Amino acid sequence: MTVFRAAVFRTRRVLPGFGLSLGYTVFYLSLIVLLPFVALFLKSATLGGERFWAAVAEPRAVAAYKLSFLSALGAALVDAVFGLLVAWVLVRYRFWGREIVNALVDLPFALPTAVAGIALTALYAENGWIGKLFKPFGVKIAYTPLGIAVALVFIGLPFVVRTVQPVLEALEQEIEEAAATLGAYRWETFRRVILPALKPALLTGFALAFARGVGEYGSVVFISGNLPFKTEIAPVLIMMKAEQYDYAGAAAVGTVMLLISFVILILINLLQGRASRRTAQG
Amino acid sequence: MTIIEPAAFEGRSPAADRPPHLTEPRLVRGMLIALALLFLGVLLVLPLIVVFTEALQKGVKVYAAAITEREALSAVRLTLAVAAIAVPLNALFGLAAAWAVTRFTFPGKNALVTLIDLPFSVSPVIAGLMIVLLYGAHGLFGPWLAERGLQIVFAFPGLVLATVFVTFPFVARELIPTMQALGTAQEEAALTLGAGGLRIFWRVTLPNVRWALLYGLVMTNARAMGEFGAVSVVSGHIRGQTNTIPLHVEILYNEYRFTAAFAVASLLALLALVTLGIRQSVERRHLRRAGGGPAGVLAGGEEGG
């Protein structure tokens, strides 16, 4: 304890306000964020093991987790590919309207999700501008899992672009110069030199888009149709349970969602650590 | 769309002007640009256009009527009131947290920064649910609140609490990297010259971080006014009382009053465009002040929208 105190208080605190700012930060954080978590876990605990399991593992809930995680995964993959393309074009090339395009990338952050939801539904419904194009081929987008994925691609894109962009900007020209000197073709240079350097950022962007997609509600609820077992995502199921005053059931499903998301984020963090170590070793 | 060659621009980043062997052939460049623009056009621009065309489909009169009807106006008032409370609260927290985290070292600092980001990884629906479980009739504090005749869930305070939760990290996330990058030299100099804590904060720190703060405020506000999932759980959908703008849009939409729904939604879309405009000009100022450096700092702030 004394060693600990010495270590903590040895650092000189020149500027004033340490106690006040840290005290307020911890107090406000506990009140606004941590306390609600306690309420969630306590409520799920009131169910007891058996009923908790029954609420969490009922077929309708399992179908909802599956749909939420799979559509978020697919959407995040699409975002990773096209996000990389958009970041590449914005950083490497100069074209008319580049600054406007750059600003527009953040639209999904700024546009309220409910607005995105009804707009995407109007576009991808059978009589919508895009839905109409696919109808002759018998492809339905709105009110199917495909529509859910479209909404999640929309929501997740800026995460990938904004994490890859700064890394691409900071990339040294010399390594590409070296690769070219050694006779590498442009594509080879991209695949073996540039892409590995971007991999940690790409993984982070992917993880952020995925995490956001799993919990997304507003942009999905309109386009998904919300049929149990078919197009009902987990957040919609939680909302249904809450609206029927089944708060314990909602809390149980919510707890499972949170736990799975955290586990996946930790896994991706580990993966990312490995990717950046490998890059550092060359 | 004309594609202008690199030389026509004063390239801000070194990557802009590259010798031919370090960039792609012209044709490939053109194709990549076209593909990216097509993707963004379909994914981002079309939904934006649809909002306005649907809103104005039946003419300006119907549009004006939809956004000036009594329930729409009460939704606008409610949304403004919620944001007017939630944004300053989180701004104050962001300033305190950034000061504590960037000006001092203490054990558990990294854990604290991680916890500040926590609300970003929680589904808004779960966030709303947690507020209900805490303050609702059957919640942890429910009986205590009921005894005193206080209602939080299905009422205005619940909307504020849910909004504060989902917009919690924005200002702190924007300020922490900026204040970290600024360092403490100027503040310590002011201290040596005899300035007190508040004076240092007002005269030295605040002017230095004003653009980052503004950006954080704008993002907090955009999310606060547009929040849907969390607010939906705690609102109880009481017309004219607990319906914010996004909830009003949902009700109109579910009643098949599509034109009215899109008309009200277009107000939120305009807010989003203004937000992006401010963001862009703030970023430009950032760049001018620091000579191209903090693009990464700015970009770091958005993870999590």
UniProtKB/TrEMBL annotation, chain A:
Gene it is expressed from: cysT
Protein name: Sulfate transport system permease protein CysT
Recorded topology in the membrane: Multi-pass membrane protein
Compartments, as annotated in UniProt: Membrane
NCBIfam families, sorted: 3a0106s02, permease_CysT
One MF term in the entry's GO annotations: ABC-type sulfate transporter activity
Function: Part of the ABC transporter complex (TC 3.A.1.6.1) involved in sulfate/thiosulfate import. Part of the ABC transporter complex CysAWTP (TC 3.A.1.6.1) involved in sulfate/thiosulfate import. Probably responsible for the translocation of the substrate across the membrane.
Pfam family, one: BPD_transp_1
Segments crossing the lipid bilayer: 21-42, 69-91, 103-125, 137-161, 201-227, 247-271
Complex and partners: The complex is composed of two ATP-binding proteins (CysA), two transmembrane proteins (CysT and CysW) and a solute-binding protein (CysP).
Automatic annotation (TrEMBL), chain B:
GO cellular component terms attached to this protein's record: plasma membrane
Listed InterPro entries: CysW_permease (IPR011866), MetI-like (IPR000515), MetI-like_sf (IPR035906), Sulph_transpt2 (IPR005667)
Membrane topology: Multi-pass membrane protein
Cited PROSITE patterns: ABC_TM1
Residue ranges crossing the lipid bilayer per the database entry: 31-52, 78-101, 121-141, 153-172, 256-278
Coiled-coil ranges (or none): none
Job of this protein: Part of the ABC transporter complex CysAWTP (TC 3.A.1.6.1) involved in sulfate/thiosulfate import. Probably responsible for the translocation of the substrate across the membrane.
Subunit field text: The complex is composed of two ATP-binding proteins (CysA), two transmembrane proteins (CysT and CysW) and a solute-binding protein (CysP).
NCBIfam families per record: 3a0106s02, permease_CysW
Protein name: ABC transmembrane type-1 domain-containing protein
Lineage: Bacteria, Bacillati, Bacillota, Bacilli, Bacillales
